[in-house]
Amino acid sequence: NIKELPEWFCQLSNLVFLDLSKNNIRTLPENFSQLTNLKHLILSHNSLRVLPDKFRQLKNLKYLGVSNNQ
Predict the structure, then answer these.
(1) Backbone phi, then psi, for 57, in 5-degree steps?
(2) What is the reported pLDDT for 5?
(3) Are 57 and 34 in contact (CB under 8 A)?
(4) CA torsion 45→49→55→56, rounded to 10°?
(5) Which site in 14, 41, 53, 58 is 20 to 30 Å from 66, CA atoms measured?
(6) Contact predicate 66/49, CB 8 Å
(7) In a 10 Å sphere around its CB, with 0-12 CB exposed, 13-18 middle and 19+ buried, how is residue 2 labelled?
(8) Listed residue (22, 48, 70, 67) closest to 32, CA to CA
């Protein structure tokens, strides 16, 4: 049951698919935009209210699942 991601996590720049669903994540690190190769991101069933401003810099992102958040 993940509550937050460590800052170093965003250094995984070759990450393409990420499923963080069904956790208790409330916020994403500001440097989340460093995951530039990310294409598929699932954040459903968490406690997210907003996404970081720099989130739009994820130019390769093709799918974003954010259902069932706050």
Answers:
(1) -80, -5
(2) 93
(3) no
(4) 100
(5) 14
(6) no
(7) exposed
(8) 48
Which tokens sit at 33? 């935009």
Tens-place pLDDT, residues 42-64: 999 999 999 988 999 999 999 99
The pTM score is 0.92
Q: How far is Cα 6 from Cα 69, in angstroms, rounded to an integer?
A: 20
Q: Which helix (H) or strand (E) holds 48?
A: none
First and final C-alpha spacing in the chain? 17
CA distance 33 to 18: 13
Element (H, E) at 3: none
Distance CA 10, CA 15 (A): 9
Average pLDDT over residues 30-36: 93
